[in-house]
Amino acid sequence: MPRALLACISLLTLFLGGALAVRFAMNDPADTAVSRGSPSEEGQAASRGAQTGTGADFLGVVIPSASVDIVPKTEGRLTSIEVEVGAHVKEGAPLLRLELQPLRKELAIAQAMLQTARAQEQLAQVALSEARDRTQRYAHPKLVSLQAVPEEEIAAAGFQEKSAAARLSAAQAQVQEQVARVEQIQQRIEDSVIKAPFEGVVADRYLDPGAQASPSRPVLRLLGAQGLRVRFAIPEEALHRVSSGAPVQVRLGREGGVLTGQVENISPEVDAASRMIIALARLDRPPGPEVPAGMVVRVRVDPPPERTALGPEETP
């Protein structure tokens, strides 16, 4: 009897357990989903929470206040580069020099040709003066009244005067051409020393001394030393949260410091490929050397102040 009783109890336990399992399996899964909330509702709640925050975070990059590729205005061989990468230079400081010997020879030839042209101009002036004197003598009233000079000679004198005036004009034009050529070569000699257009830091060097430089080949890259700016991208749906002049906080990495600034300007158009709008922020103070140009940062923009409706003015 005890063994039979134990067997009955075991069968009853298995039966009850199976019934509970079947009942749990037949329950509607939506009941559990309702209690925990659907993923879409969680995403909407997170989005509402972000929209009601105190600011918006965007990804940005540090850029210099100004940048330029230093290229020579004329072709020539680089004789020297006066600065190294990373050097701080003042405005007007010499950066590189081109070879001058060919230009000096060309200048000497041009100056000699200018002297020849001026000599030809003087000869033309003398010839014109003689032709005018002859024409004036032939046109004297006494000689005209006496008809002492044949008409053919008077006409020839007038023709010679006109020819002398034309030769003088040609000589003067030749002088002007040679003067312009001399000035052009002198300017090329002056341009052979390339100077810094503004105060900045030498960021890169593309050519070495001895290389052939030309206006199409940059030699150095200069970054402005008047501070850095931050350029960041704004999704088009978040544009209403950023306005010109809004304060920003720029975080330099996870453990870096925080810089402050203001939104300087916002692009008026949306990039068709990324659906982003580019904005530029100006920092309140120049960062230290630990913040190089090109550094990726996080930009937090405070929302614009809410406008309050103005009620009617009270009259006394």
UniProtKB/TrEMBL annotation:
Region (Disordered): 31-52
Superkingdom in the source lineage: Bacteria
Record bears the keyword Signal: yes
Cleavable signal peptide: 1-21
All residue ranges annotated as the CusB-like beta-barrel domain in the record: 230-302
Molecular function as annotated in GO: efflux transmembrane transporter activity
Example of a GO cellular component annotation carried by this entry: efflux pump complex
Alphabetized InterPro entries for the sequence: Beta-barrel_RND_2, RND_pump_MFP
Any Pfam family the entry gives: Beta-barrel_RND_2
Keywords tagged on the record: Signal
Family classification: Belongs to the membrane fusion protein (MFP) (TC 8.A.1) family.
NCBIfam families: RND_mfp (TIGR01730)
Name under which the protein is recorded: CusB-like beta-barrel domain-containing protein
Annotated source species: Melittangium boletus DSM 14713
Source taxonomy: Bacteria, Pseudomonadati, Myxococcota, Myxococcia, Myxococcales
